[in-house]
Amino acid sequence: MAHRIAFLGFVALAVCASLSLAADPANLQDFCVADASGNTRMNGMACKNPAMVQASDFAFSGLHIPGNTSNAVGSGVTPVVVTQIPGLNTLGISMVRIDYAPWGINSLHTHPRATEILTVIEGSLEVGFVTSNPENRHITKILKKGDVFVFPVGLIHYQRNIGYGNAVAIAALSSQNPGVITIANAVFGSKPDISSDLLAKAFQVDKSVVWQLQTKF
């Protein structure tokens, strides 16, 4: 009987340990405002002395200002991450405003560290993401004002304004620093270049097509 109780106790401890490893660690203090001047290298940012913390460390102004959409893709992103609000450090959350010119796109990209939940504030958007190999399912939907859509962490996704007026969306992300990898920029604009032979074979196109794309990014 004693052996069985000891075994069950070990199993319970193992389950608790696995659950604790599956989530971000809980804060051991009220906050850890990022200290941009700190030289300590760590996963996240060093904490400012709590006695030096001000209300401004938890605030950001300007999300009402439209982003610049005068670019090749016709969209502008205004980030509100730990760089803009130091008080987000260790809290595992951030947000962005996305503005879209008519038929503008937020190009194919992925957030390596965050799930995204997006709300349409103005206009209509076509949104979608692609599941991982081997299915590569394209899951897509048309969103109107007030609609909400989720992009799972790490999956390639996009948005496109399908209206003739400007569109606006607000998105929350489950990381203080979600990161973004724009697929076209990463593949064709890497420094140094990825071999044109490799890209031509991967995309099953002629090398001249790869060279042309690399000049654009």
Automatic annotation (TrEMBL):
Report if keyword Aminoacyl-tRNA synthetase is assigned: no
Q: What is the name attached to this protein's record?
A: Germin-like protein
Please classify the protein's predominant subcellular localization into one broad category: secreted
Keyword terms: Apoplast, Disulfide bond, Glycoprotein, Manganese, Metal-binding, Secreted, Signal
Chain segments annotated as transmembrane: none
InterPro entries (alphabetical): Cupin_1 (IPR006045), Germin (IPR001929), Germin_Mn-BS (IPR019780), RmlC-like_jellyroll (IPR014710), RmlC_Cupin_sf (IPR011051)
**What family is it from?**
Belongs to the germin family.
Under the heading PANTHER family, the entry gives: GERMIN-LIKE PROTEIN SUBFAMILY 3 MEMBER 3
Query: What SUPFAM superfamilies does the annotation carry?
Result: RmlC-like cupins
Q: Which residues bind Mn(2+)?
A: H109, H111, E116, H157
Query: Which residues are oxalate-binding?
Result: N106, H111, E116
Its annotated compartments are:
Secreted, Extracellular space, Apoplast
One Pfam entry for this protein is Cupin_1
Q: Superkingdom of this entry's organism?
A: Eukaryota
List cystine links. C32-C47
> What is the documented function of this protein?
May play a role in plant defense. Probably has no oxalate oxidase activity even if the active site is conserved.
* Residue span, Cupin type-1 domain: 61-211
Cellular component annotations (GO), alphabetically ordered: apoplast
Signal peptide positions are 1-22
Q: Please give one Gene Ontology molecular function term for this protein.
A: manganese ion binding
Keyword Cell inner membrane attached: no
